[in-house]
Design brief:
Order of helices and strands: HHHHHH
Radius of gyration: 23 Å
Shape: elongated
Helix content: 55-70%
Number of strands: 0
Length: 173
């Protein structure tokens, strides 16, 4: 076994007995060059928001994959004339983003959570722009599309707020 008497006169190292398991993990991670912060102060409701996002992204993806024509009709209040391949590809992309959300939900790494939030924010911003341009081209503004645009602005605001608060450095007392 390990001889404790040999380490009594050594400076504080990762072999000290006074550390808890998280301190061991943190010291090993620091030695390996990882930026894992096990005591990261998360904003209130962050994990709930990521869970909500993961569920919404998954449901939307499955709807786009299974019922592409109906999804288009609900948003744009028109029957789709082209093939449904593009909407199914959209569903596949959304499903990929939902997998990122599910991964972000279960990680303790601050950087991964930040990238998860940033990818979500980029999605909302791009979807807002694409939907707006499409509605201008169509010349119509159905209620469902207005609701979609307003929800994207709201989701973008909440996601960027969490991204900002997670990235802030804690105040020194």
């Amino acid at each position: 076994m390990f001889d404790k008497s040999r380490t009594e006169h050594m400076p504080m190292t990762i072999f000290s007995y006074s550390h808890s398991a998280t301190c061991w993990q943190q010291e090993i991670s620091q030695m390996l060059g990882n930026e894992i912060k096990f005591a990261v102060r998360e904003p209130v409701g962050l994990r709930l928001w990521i869970l909500f996002s993961a569920v919404v992204f998954t449901v939307m993806a499955l709807m786009a994959l299974a019922f592409p024509n109906q999804l288009y009709e609900v948003v744009f209040d028109q029957e789709q004339t082209a093939t449904s391949v593009s909407i199914r590809l959209y569903g596949g992309a959304i499903l990929s983003l939902s997998l990122i959300m599910w991964n972000g939900l279960y990680t303790a790494e601050k950087v991964i959570i930040q990238w998860t939030l940033l990818s979500e924010a980029c999605y909302f911003a791009i979807q807002f722009l694409v939907t707006s341009v499409t509605l201008v081209e169509l010349g119509s503004l159905p209620n469902a599309a207005i609701l979609l645009l307003l929800s994207r602005i709201f989701f973008l605001t909440v996601t960027l707020s969490y991204y900002y608060h997670l990235g802030r450095r804690p105040k020194k007392i």
